[in-house]
Amino acid sequence: MKPARFEYVAPASVDAAVETLLAANGEGKLLAGGQSLLPLLNFRMARPAVLVDLNGIKELSFIELRGESVVIGALTRHREIEHSPLIASRLPVMSAAMRHVAHLAIRNRGTIGGSLSHADPAAELPMMAMFYAARLTVQGPAGRRTIAAKDFFVDALTNCLEPEEIVVEIEFPIPQHDGWVFEEVARRFGDFALASIAVSIRRGQSGIEDARVAAMGVADTPLRLEDVERRLCEIEIDVRMPDRFCEWVRSSVSPNSDLHASGEYRKHLLGELARRALKTALAAKGDRR
Amino acid sequence: MTVNVSVTVNGMRHEISGVEPRLLLSDFLRDTLGLTGTHVGCEHGVCGACTVLMDGHSVRSCLTLAVQANGSEITTVEGLGTPETLNVLQTQFREHHGLQCGFCTPGMLMTGEDLLRKYPLATDEEIREGLSGNLCRCTGYQNIVAAIRSAAALRRENA
Ligand SMILES: Cc1cc2nc3c(=O)[nH]c(=O)nc-3n(C[C@H](O)[C@H](O)[C@H](O)COP(=O)(O)OP(=O)(O)OC[C@H]3O[C@@H](n4cnc5c(N)ncnc54)[C@H](O)[C@@H]3O)c2cc1C
Ligand code: FES
Ligand code: FES
Predict the structure, then answer these.
(1) Could you give the domains of chain A?
(2) Does residue B115 have its Cβ closer than 6 Å to ligand 3?
(3) Which of A132, A138, A123, A144 lies closest to A169, judged by CA?
(4) Nearest CB neighbour to A109, from listed B59, B67, B129
(5) Which among B139, B141, B144, B148 is the best mutation to test ligand 3's pocket, defined by most ligand atoms within 8 Å of the CB?
(6) Which residue of A has its CA nearest to B24?
(7) Does the beta carbon of A30 sit less than 6 angstroms from any atom of ligand 1?
(8) Beta-strand runs (E) in chain B
(9) pTM over 0.90
(10) pLDDT (tens digit per residue) in A188-229
(11) In this predicted complex, what is the ipTM?
(12) Which domains, from first to last, does chain B contain?
């Protein structure tokens, strides 16, 4: 028995889960897929008095089209997102990113709500939340509120939630783009990324009309590079564009060194991935959804 | 605090009371039910030795609480076949010498079973990606990949 003792509660609704958290007086912890929390419990780095298991709340598990957005319930498993035809057709960059999320057995359990809340700076789903400018609906004692992804991720492994708040669903507006790429390098397939970039564009008559660029592994939170997006739309498409893009991306990040790679290497790597990504995105002539 | 766990393991139903909620599924299988085929290596999700099927999907039993398995159906390596009647994947592991010490093997087999159900496994790259969450310190993986490649081919022939 590795974890320290705790009370176990499995509420059947989000309301009941919020009640349980309130009653636990700051000593409660939510359990979703457990794929980040169980290691912490096993190491006794987390010792909650009450564990609130969300797995019985079935209405938290769905993927649906709502207007111009795809909305995903917080308890939806990585596996379900990976294999969803709706995600593949409307959010293809996310679909491509899912293969890189951990390993099969972990994707079978891990959830999008858990991944976003855990806020690992090298995790794919938080990066996708930034990339798609997602909005998170959370419920707490005062009811529901909506938080933009850019406000949700505060620091490495830190989100902006109050202790009694629960992520309920996440809305991903669908961009109208025709070229997209997800690039990642990890030490071992399925491990957390050393660096990763996502690019998607819509081409107009003479240049790029709209662009999205997000990166991760290079800061304490995933980043959306809005300056770079703007500059991509300001110049004409020519053979030098990928090189210029590479330089812009590199100059907009300053990663730290850690056990896995030096900051300089991560920066270099991200630039290379950026160059490769833009070439591929430009080559897609409207046939890539 | 203790809870009741009722779970079907390898087709057999168990009703166990007095389970501490902090008991991991891996320890429940090994210590409470005596099914020691499920191996425990790292106990934090990295090595894959403890992989079992829960309602048909592979999961890390060291990252699942026994109480979370309540009402579910678990398959462990003991449920795949018997020494006299090995299943297809087990037979391929034997044919291709896919194990040496055998410590990683239960996890490799349970992962392999789930991979064979979910992915075409048409290339070695795909098989290696699928096995990326399972560590083996003996074989160098070559023969494990060969065993799964061959099981996937047999499955295609029989489809
Ligand atoms: C070996 C290994 C490799 C991995 N590799 C990767 C990888 O390459 N990329 C990647 O992205 N991830 C990786 N992961 C992590 C995995 O994706 C986890 O599933 C994910 O980080 C957490 O999701 P979960 O549902 O398991 O959450 P849990 O572990 O259950 O919870 C994580 C945290 O979020 C909180 N929480 C959970 N749900 C909610 C909610 N609805 N509202 C508010 N708070 C909530 C919990 O209280 C806890 O603090 C890896 C994990 C392992 C063990
Ligand atoms: S013992 Fe469960 S993954 Fe290593
Ligand atoms: S056979 Fe010994 S660890 Fe794999």
Answers:
(1) 7-53 (3.30.43.10), 58-173 (3.30.465.10), 179-283 (3.30.390.50)
(2) no
(3) A138
(4) B59
(5) B139
(6) A1
(7) yes
(8) 3-9, 12-19, 51-54, 57-60, 73-75
(9) yes
(10) 888 889 999 999 999 998 899 999 999 999 999 999 999 999
(11) 0.97
(12) 3-79 (3.10.20.30), 88-158 (1.10.150.120)
